[in-house]
Amino acid sequence: MEGIKFSKKPRLKTPYLICAWPGMGEVAFKAATYLVEQLKAEEFAEIPPEDFFYLTGSVVQKGILNVPQFPYSKFYYWKNKAGGNDLIIFISNAQPDLAKADEYCKRIIHVAKTFKAKTIVSFAAMPQPIDHTQQPKVWFTATSKEIINSLMKYNFELLAEGQISGMNGLFLGMAKKEGFGGFCLLGEIPLYTIQIENPKASYAVLETLARVLKIEIDFNGLLDESHGMEGEINKLLDYLKLGATPGPIGEEDIEKIKKSLTQLTKLPLSVKENIERLFVLAKADIAKAQELKAELDKWNVYKEYEDRFLDLFKKKKDENN
Q: What pLDDT score does 210 carry?
């Protein structure tokens, strides 16, 4: 297919297709990249980035500015020597402009059809009023009642109503339209840590997938990262609570923690690109400013963009005078 660059074409046995993009807590992206590393899955194809991404800046490391790099969208395969289904794992380190999502999804679906994929699996985060020390629950939703019934035996929490935003949710719906069945596993993350990489939630969804697919994965590396991140958050919370009244974390505490956790924040590249896209749209049509403000509030970064946001209204006022 035009738009897919193959480096090899492996022979696979009714594979599952697992897809992941960055998002809240990097739950999906972290889980999929860890899966590729542990299974030693091999790259075999990619979607050339030029049709779906644009360069937004250069990365500086140790004072040196590097050549800008496009995001990648790569396919990996793993053959199940135990006799079960093989795997295709698709990972992109950025979400494309959702205006181009239809064509982007078609290219992934073409690969799924080429290799006769059986089921589509995605991961996502589910912000909940839980503490970061708790073991997150795993929720799920599926494309059919039959798949829901087949997964109920694992005692996951069923997401009966709601929405899964971004490509981690959108792609599964697009795949269903093309006749594929599948399910999405959502790992809980605390409301006050949505911008922070959450390896504990990534572990939860990946451990769940391993049970469903009956595959063995060494989770020690992911668990070590979970303990390390929990320790960093504990240190910060101890600092924030100095002089505060002991007790459960309230709404005001959550807002304070969100603002203070910026030192641990890694805002996904796809989110930054979407914010820039919304700024462009809002500059052309001020009515889009509401959508932009909602996105900034969602990721708790309004303060970082406040001057630029207010400038949109100043410029509009100047134009009207």
A: 96
